Sequence to fold (79 residues):
Amino acid sequence: MSVLIRFLPDNVTVEAEVGEPILDVAERAGISIPTGCLMGSCHACEVEIEDGPTICSCITGVPPGREKLTINLYSDPTW
Fold:
């Protein structure tokens, strides 16, 4: 099952499969998300799911049950 993922503020939309790591989806779409440990410990790759939680994109897959998903990117100047 595929989900349309929209990355803000870049306004880039890409199709992704349920379970696919969000960090991989972003990379495929040409979106750069800062990373650190790639295990979710450092929180460098945090993004915000619209109407949902802040998650670590390196360890979180595309969730099931949605046709569309908007992800808000923000940058931490310390990274």
About this structure: Strands lie at 2-8, 12-17, 46-49, 54-56, 68-72.
